[in-house]
Amino acid sequence: MRRTVFPNKLLPWLLLAPQLAVTLIFFYWPALQAFRQSMLKEDAFGLSTKFVGLANFRKVLADPAYLNALKVTVVFSLAVALSAMAIALFLAVQVEKIRCGKGFYRTLMIWPYAVATAIAGMLWLFLFNPGFGTLAAPMRALGFNWNPLLKGDQAMGLVIAAATWKQISYNFLFFVAGLQAIPKSLIEAAAIDGASRRHAFWTIVFPLLAPTTFFLLVVNTVYALFDTFGIIHAVTGGGPGRATETLVYKVYNDGFVNLMMGESAAQSVILMVIVIALTAIQFRFIERRVHYG
């Protein structure tokens, strides 16, 4: 293995400087500011501040609305991550079976990822809004009492469907790449030995997709926790009755709408700790089962 030797010891740091600057300015500095603000109590206009220590954290953790947001986040994140990955894997496997026009189908599947998150939310709102939605009228004609603006379970199902649809294309792209990296000789050998397609998939293909699946599990978890804010904001606004208010949306509501800056900062710190813990658990207990061949 060749080792790269730089002629000047300062050169590696100069090459790393742009990335280090971006990381420090846009990641570590805001995190430190949020932690500092979580220890303060200030008025809505930021004219006076008072150090209160961990009082904001105690208040947040004792708030029933925050515990409800935590429950909603768990259900929402699990449903979005697992659904988006399962559907994308199924579509990737089906596309690989196509003999003619495979590239055309792949392109159609990837297009939805180019849609902005807020726009994706508006598309689903226009389709399923009980007042003017394109698909809402046929649903009522079939006798289905559809009204996600008033029924929490229907609102949750709608935002889960919208967030899942938005993420399928991303997962599909990586699963297709993973399937193409699997040697065809392994599948042919399994077929010669009499293995069915289903048996070959679960014993050969799926285990070899473990690195891709693990990577997408981490990415989809972060996506469900943070990147779905635009969809929830556009479709339900956290309602009805906080039925779709996730942790990141509650941070926005308390900080930018209700101007409770200290409590909002404490919630963002707790959310950051949750994400770090989830990522660490995934790498600690799930990655060891991943075979990188």
Secondary-structure element string:
HEEHHHHHHHHHHHH
Kindly estimate the percentage of residues that lie in beta strands according to DSSP.
Answer: under 5%
Order of strands in the sheet with most strands: 1-2
Helix count, DSSP H or I runs of 4 or more residues: 13
Shape: globular
The total of beta strands comes to 2
- State mean pLDDT (0 to 100 scale): 86
The name of the CATH superfamily reads MetI-like
Q: Kindly state the percentage of residues in helix.
A: over 70%
> Which regions contain 5 or more consecutive residues with pLDDT less than 50?
none
CATH class type: Mainly Alpha
Question: Could you describe the 3D structure shown?
Answer:
With 293 residues, the protein is mainly alpha-helical. The protein has one domain (60-287): MetI-like (MetI-like fold, Orthogonal Bundle), CATH 1.10.3720.10. It contains 13 helices and two strands, in the order H-E-E-H-H-H-H-H-H-H-H-H-H-H-H. A two-stranded antiparallel ribbon has the order 1-2. Strand 1 (40-42) and strand 2 (49-51) form a beta hairpin. Helix 3 (64-96) packs parallel to helix 7 (152-181) and helix 8 runs antiparallel to helix 9. The longest helix has 33 residues, at 64-96. It is globular, with a radius of gyration of 23 Å. It comes from Paracoccus sulfuroxidans. Part of the ABC transporter complex UgpBAEC involved in sn-glycerol-3-phosphate (G3P) import. Probably responsible for the translocation of the substrate across the membrane. It is a multi-pass membrane protein. InterPro entries: MetI-like (IPR000515), MetI-like_sf (IPR035906), UgpAE/MalFG_permease (IPR050809). Keywords: Cell inner membrane, Cell membrane, Membrane, Transmembrane, Transmembrane helix, Transport.
